[in-house]
Write a structure and sequence with these properties.
Layout: H1 8-23, H2 28-57, H3 62-85, H4 90-98, H5 100-117
Helix pairs in contact: 1-2, 1-5, 2-3, 2-4
């Protein structure tokens, strides 16, 4: 059975849920760290999508570019603060941040296979 989803966000959430379920045997701290990093990426992806749409449609002008740069700085700041404070388990936190990568690959492969199968 092949799971298909129309959006990158849905694929990301599905992989994040799978990773969180896999972290349960490692304790609450691992689950919390993974979920926190995944939540950061969920927000990051939502803001990135809106910013890119605004840039592509030309509605926001320079403001959209500023939002893209601000988003990057906020994500880096949040990750840096959480890792520096030591309040998160580093490995599950990095796994939560990285869950977007296989979701993007999965989404891209689905999109590419859809293009090839169209007449």
């Amino acid at each position: 059975m092949r799971l298909r989803s129309a959006s990158l966000r849905a694929k990301h959430l599905w992989l994040l849920a799978l990773a969180i379920a896999g972290a349960i045997p490692y304790g609450c701290h691992a689950v919390w760290s993974l979920a926190l990093a995944g939540g950061i990426q969920v927000l990051n992806l939502a803001v990135l999508e809106r910013s890119v749409r605004a840039v592509l449609t030309g509605r926001a002008g320079g403001l959209a570019s500023l939002l893209l740069f601000s988003r990057l700085l906020l994500v880096l700041l949040a990750v840096g603060v959480l890792l520096a404070r030591g309040g998160v388990a580093p490995v599950p936190f990095v796994v939560g941040l990285s869950a977007l990568v296989p979701a993007a690959i999965w989404f891209g492969l689905d999109q590419a296979s859809g293009v090839r199968s169209r007449p």
